Amino acid sequence: MTHEDRHAMPGRARARWRVGSVVVAVTLLAVACTGNGDGTRGPRAEPSPPPGSSAAPAQRAAPSPPPATGLRGLIAYSTQAGDIWVMNADGSNRRQVTRTRDPAFDFDPSLSPDGRRVVFRTSRGRYGPDPGGIGAEGIFVIDVATRKERQIQPPQGGLFPAWSPDGKTIAFSGTRGSPYEDGILLMNPDGTNVRDIGLPTGGNECATWSPDSSKLAFCHHGGDGNWAVWTVNADGSDPRQLTHPTLTLPRGSGGDSPGPWSPDGKRLAFGSQRSGNFDVFVMNADGSGQHQLTHAADGESPAAWLPDGRIVYASFHGGQPLPSWYLMNPDGTGVRTLPQLDGAGDPIDWLATAG
After folding, report:
1. What whole-number distance in Å separates Cα of residue 255 and Cα of residue 243?
2. What 3-state DSSP class applies to 55?
3. Which of 110, 148, 242, 251 has the fewest CB atoms within 10 Å, counting from its CB?
């Protein structure tokens, strides 16, 4: 499978610049890691100004919902220039955490539970070759206050780093055995004690932690490239397939990808192409009760589930290089815009307990 195929997956592959996924319809799927948010060495668009500036990308011409207010928490995001920024959820106290130079690119940030550090994927650092083209690169941790950073893992490269809510573990995807397969690996926040939790053969990526750090949701395909949402206990036991894509699409071009868990851990948001376009869905944590929340012509990807029950999602319109950001009730109503995230790439990390 080619590099492009692997990053056409629908998952938090959002972790890369989707020009124009994690995700989203063939456009978003091809977007999941194409363009330049994925650390590739191709031409990049000119850097965008920080979100919230007067030059930031404008909302679509269609009437927009009113902006959301009263938001709390801490958000980490990457810009089109390839740097990591952190701000309060209301857009205040915005600060740049990393500074890169072309062709380097930092993206896919995940905050520590105390908000003091960020783990992220980067084209910088030293890591082994990637013969399977899965997109494995450096994984760094940086202190938000001091800007001191270090590469923690792995020698062979990795992707999709995700900090557990209890702060004890970072999950990431890394190659194992065949260069065309990857597994979900865990490590301590300093990069030690790396272990493979032993998932089924094939592609295993885009892990997201349950609120109590006991489970992971992830996307998996067994070789056909069409991704399904699975869950597994953090010790690798009881892997379960929750969605069953029935796609008639080219190899590696679509499927389902996990998004955030509900604050109580009883439900899971996910992106799915089952309706023809990538939309936001929710389901119970056992896979039951799957239903669609968004029905727009755009490609949409869930990004965060806030303590008050509302869901944050990215919406890619046409070929725009950056998404528009929205907030909605868990039943899909009450849509509001998030203008403070104008210019932010998908994915973001929203730490609702900080800030």
Report:
1. 9
2. coil
3. 148
Spatial CA neighbour of 94 closest among 48, 142, 53: 53
Distance (Å, whole) CA 142 – CA 65: 36
Peptide bond before 260: cis, by omega within 30 degrees of 0? Answer: no
Residue ranges of the chain with per-residue pLDDT less than 50: 1-61, 248
pLDDT 10s digits, 153-186: 888 789 999 999 999 999 999 987 677 778 999 9
Quick one: pLDDT at residue 113? Answer: 97
Q: Which residue carries 């958000």 as its tokens?
A: 75
Q: Please, what are the domains in the chain? A: 3-54+71-351 (2.120.10.30)
User: What is the model's pLDDT at position 12?
Assistant: 38
Q: What is the pTM of this model?
A: 0.84
Cα Rg for the chain, rounded, in angstroms? 18
Q: What's residue 77's pLDDT?
A: 98
Provide the residue type at 22 as one letter.
V
pLDDT of residue 57: 39
pLDDT of residue 355: 53
Mapped to the 3 state alphabet, what secondary structure does the chain carry? CCHHHHCCCCCHHHHCCCCCCCCCHHHHHCCCCCCCCCCCCCCCCCCCCCCCCCCCCCCCCCCCCCECCCCCCEEEEECCCCCEEEEECCCCCCEECCCCCCCCCEEEEEECCCCCEEEEEECCCCCCCCCCCCCCEEEEEEECCCCCEEEEEEEEEEEEEEECCCCCCEEEEEEECEEEEEEEEEECCCCCCCEECCCCCCEEEEEEECCCCCEEEEEEECCCCCEEEEEEECCCCCCEECCCCCCCCCCCCCEEEEEEECCCCCEEEEEECCCCCCEEEEEECCCCCCEECCCCCCEEEEEEECCCCCEEEEEECCCCCCCEEEEECCCCCCCEECHHHCCCCCCCEEECCCC
